[in-house]
Amino acid sequence: MLRIALPNKGRLSEKALDLFETAGLKAEFSSARALVAQLGPDFQAIFVRAADIPEFVADGAADLGVTGADLVAESGREVTEVLDLGFGRCRLAVAVPEDSEIRHPADIPAGSRIATSFPGITRSFFRELGIDIEIAPVSGATEIAPHLGVADVIVDLVSTGSTLRVNRLREVTTILESTARVIANRDVVADPERNGSLEEVVTALESVLRARAKRYLMANVPRTRLDEVREVLPGINGPTIVEVADSGAWVAAHGVVDADRVYQTIARLKALGAEGILVTKIERLMP
Predict the structure, then answer these.
(1) Domain locations in the chain?
(2) Distance set, CA 272 to CA 85, 155, 246 (Å)
(3) Where in the cell is it found (predicted)?
(4) Are 136 and 114 in contact (CB under 8 A)?
(5) β-strand pairing of 36-39 with 43-48
(6) For the chain, percent helix, then strand, then coil, each to nearest 5?
């Protein structure tokens, strides 16, 4: 049985649990406060802090884990990234007060004090720039540090940038981009028997992620316009054409389309004389 470490709270936890449930791996808890749950008969979930998941996976306490790429980088632990889940998108940025003359990282003077909850990444970034800095470690409310005289610069996670603007800070540069990732213990990846179970989980999650970006579209189209319909509705390997019980003038075309192109696809099909168009979500999609 593979053990999978999942975040125990926050948006990352909610999205991870939803993804696993849609993939057929619903967490079954023995009680409301349980920190362990079954994910079907073959997998077990343990719920820990997202920041601790790289440690659990690297040490073998968990075989797989879901956490942010920023936390994996900060941990410095050797794990294998097996899947980018796409959600939890943010960036680790360098920011300064709005009235600061600093415009580029190279403008930051040696000896500057930098407030951050990512000391490892921050040290490495400025070491590569050849700038000696002092770290002011904080665990939260990093944006207030420059206004209290605690630090000259901050390195913090940014999503939309609104928190920086509210606190009169200006972004200078991005150190790294982060999303939620599935990471694996390297021994598990190298073990043929356990790697098979790992691939089962990854394949199930991928099928859900792939489906979320697609829609299934069905339409009755004139048989005489089939060649043009194939250009509009290519699907994965071309549209599926089904006979309609009429005089033979119509066929039903079924295909998979990009979710963000549905309205354009419908407009083009209508222009070809299509009728009875139906669009539906896809739960899972395998290539």
Answers:
(1) 2-88+179-211, 90-178, 214-281
(2) 37, 54, 19
(3) Cytoplasm
(4) yes
(5) antiparallel
(6) 35, 35, 30
* CA gap 63, 60 in Å, rounded: 6
Q: To the nearest whole number, what is the mean pLDDT of the chain?
A: 93
Superfamily of domain 90-178: Periplasmic binding protein-like II (3.40.190.10)
Say yes or no: do domains 2-88+179-211 and 90-178 share a fold: yes
> What gap in Å lies between CA 7 and CA 53, rounded to an integer?
8
Tokens of 81: 């990234």
CATH number of 214-281: 3.30.70.120
Q: What is the pLDDT of residues 187-216, one digit of tens each?
A: 999 999 899 999 999 999 999 999 999 999
Given CATH 3.40.50.140, say whether it is the number of domain 2-88+179-211: no
How far CA 215 is from CA of 177, 219, 255, 277, in Å, comes to: 28, 13, 8, 12
Q: pLDDT tens, 127-185?
A: 999 999 999 999 888 999 999 999 999 999 999 889 999 999 999 999 999 999 999 99
Query: What are the DSSP calls for the chain, one per residue?
Result: -EEEEEESSHHHHHHHHHHHHHTT--EEESSTT-SEEEETTTEEEEEE-GGGHHHHHHHTS-SEEEEEHHHHHHH----EEEEE---S-EEEEEEEETT----SGGGSPTT-EEEES-HHHHHHHHHHHT---EEEE-SS-GGGGGGGTS-SEEEEEESSSHHHHHTTEEEEEEEEEE-EEEEE-HHHHH-HHHHHHHHHHHHHHHHHHHHHTEEEEEEEEEGGGHHHHHHH--TTTS-EEEE-SSSSSEEEEEEEEEGGGHHHHHHHHHHTT-EEEEEEE-S----
Q: Would you state the structure tokens that stand for residue 230, as one six-digit string?
A: 């194939």
